[in-house]
Design brief:
- By secondary structure, the chain is an alpha/beta fold.
- It has a domain of 242 residues: Amidase signature (AS) enzymes (Alpha-Beta Complex).
- It has 15 helices and eleven strands.
- Helix 8 links the parallel strand 7 and strand 8.
- The protein starts with 6 loop residues before the first helix and ends with a helix.
- The structure holds glutamine.
- The site of glutamine has 14 residues, from strand 4.
Length: 474
């Protein structure tokens, strides 16, 4: 059994009854144990996942199994799963037990996927390297001296190292696409509102989206099919019909127009990344697609706009961790003020505190107009840039990150360098559009390079189609 094959390949054997879900879960569990030092999981549901697997094996025999029968899935520890601890990678929620299931988890289980465990992550999803977890860093599966990317570090490593068939992550500014790129797998951020956020612990509510990591574009499409759709528990989930994502994967790009934003392909782009992307562009040309230069003139403002708005939203969302209602409470308190101050000082890590301070500052009365309101206005300009570009092209192709996987510790003392790592990914969250990261080869050191495809709002079929084409035409 090849533990890193796509779900589709494994599914065929399952339905021909050449393999069982139980054996598959056992195999993934043994990889989790063997590669414990990668620190990808915060909790592993050994007994429950094996038990659940047996039940699905019986359903397969009876012919009643769902569309994700036997898919073994890992879940970022920012999503609630009833009766299990949901830490968000923070000491603040070390003992917090979720009281209900996130809609995505309910849907996955109804389709007969097996949840194998909850994965490590940058605290409250703030980070680009997997080094901000209160439970230790997650390491890159191909080179343990390097970062796997973040913030969905554990979910990405779980799939890249064969600890699960697929996984769920969240993407507020790149946290699915960037690690997928650095680890050489597929990562999909759907359109804002495409997937219900009910049961997702909020970081920046106008940006957050849930999406899959997978070993193939097709597997990502299968997961999206099950988690997408309107949910009455999330008023921001979109009431837009869910198309058949699998039927979009026809591997035909003839006549399609693919945009290359000139601002993303300047001379500063790393040469190896540029040449890997050029190969993908050639593939598209050979397939009959037309390559068109487009402009996203406000690209230079994306990082500052994102880090103003996301921190503002975070400072408000994280106000609920006050030491009084739930979560960590300092034992060293004397009055109400010290409950707040000490619980928050001891419960949050450095990066989370930095974001709360930045966010509080940009929202404070003297600075609101200069920073927060201005950033809201620039967000509109960035959205308009994409609207204009999509009048000319069907989808946009860009790099995923400025470098391949960097060394552990390399950017930890320089937050600005860490933030700059998100330069190619945050624009999709600012505009609310879907994006996918697809493998595009390796650099001279054998480290993966990813390519990003961006689509119009709700046009996941388009980026999945182009991604599937790129994956299957070398
Ligand atoms: N790296 C970005 C940040 O730190 C994005 C995080 C995310 O997408 N959750 O905010």
């Amino acid at each position: 059994m090849n533990i890193q094959e796509s779900y589709d390949t494994y599914r065929k054997r399952l339905f021909q009854q050449e393999e069982t879900v139980e054996a598959r879960v056992a195999e993934h569990l043994s990889v989790i144990t063997k590669r414990k030092n990668l620190n990808a999981f915060l909790s592993v549901f050994e007994k429950d996942s094996l038990l659940h697997a047996k039940g699905i094996d019986a359903k397969i025999k009876k012919g009643t199994a769902g569309s994700l029968a036997g898919m073994v899935i890992a879940i970022k520890d920012v999503l609630s799963m009833k009766g299990t601890v949901t830490t968000c990678g923070s000491k603040m929620l070390e003992h917090f037990e979720a009281v209900y299931d996130a809609t995505v988890i309910k849907n996955l289980r109804a389709a007969d996927a097996v949840v194998i465990g909850k994965t490590n992550m940058d605290e409250f999803a703030m980070g680009s390297s997997g080094e901000n977890s209160a439970y230790g860093v997650t390491k890159h599966p191909l080179d343990e001296s390097r970062v796997p990317g973040g913030s969905s570090s554990g979910s990405c490593v779980a799939v890249a190292a064969g600890m699960a068939t697929t996984s769920l992550g969240t993407d507020t500014g790149g946290s699915i696409r960037q690690p997928a790129g650095l680890c050489g797998i597929v990562g999909l951020k759907p359109t804002y509102g495409r997937v219900s956020r009910y049961g997702l612990v909020a970081f920046a509510s106008s940006f957050d989206q849930i999406g899959p990591f997978a070993n193939s574009v097709r597997d990502a499409a299968r997961v999206l099919q099950v988690i997408a759709g309107k949910d009455e528990n999330d008023s921001t989930s979109a009431n837009v019909p869910v198309p058949d994502y699998l039927s979009a994967l026809d591997r035909n790009v003839k006549g399609m127009k693919i945009g290359l934003p000139k601002e993303y392909f300047s001379d500063v782009l790393n040469k190896e990344i540029r040449s890997a992307i050029d190969k993908k562009i050639d593939q598209l040309k050979k397939g009959g697609a037309e390559i068109v230069e487009v402009s996203l003139p406000n690209s230079e403002f994306t990082i500052s706009t994102y880090y103003i708005l996301a921190t503002a939203e975070a400072s408000s969302n994280l106000a609920r961790y006050d030491g009084a209602r739930y979560g960590f409470r300092s034992s060293n308190v004397s009055d109400l003020n010290s409950v707040y101050t000490k619980s928050r000082s001891e419960g949050f890590g450095d990066e989370v505190k930095r974001r709360i301070m930045l966010g509080t500052y940009v929202l404070s009365s003297g600075y609101y107009d200069a920073y927060y309101r201005k950033a809201q206005q620039v967000r509109h300009l960035i959205q308009n840039d994409f609207n204009d570009a999509f009048k000319k092209v069907d989808c946009i192709l860009t790099p995923i990150s400025p470098t391949t996987a960097f060394k552990l510790g390399e950017k930890m003392n320089d937050p600005l360098q860490m933030y700059l790592n998100d330069i190619y990914t945050v624009s999709a969250n600012l505009a609310g559009i879907p994006g996918i990261s697809v493998p595009a080869g390796v650099d001279a050191q054998g480290l993966p390079i990813g390519v990003q495809l961006l689509g119009k709002q709700f046009d996941e079929p388009m980026i999945l189609k182009v991604g599937d084409f790129l994956e299957n035409n070398n």
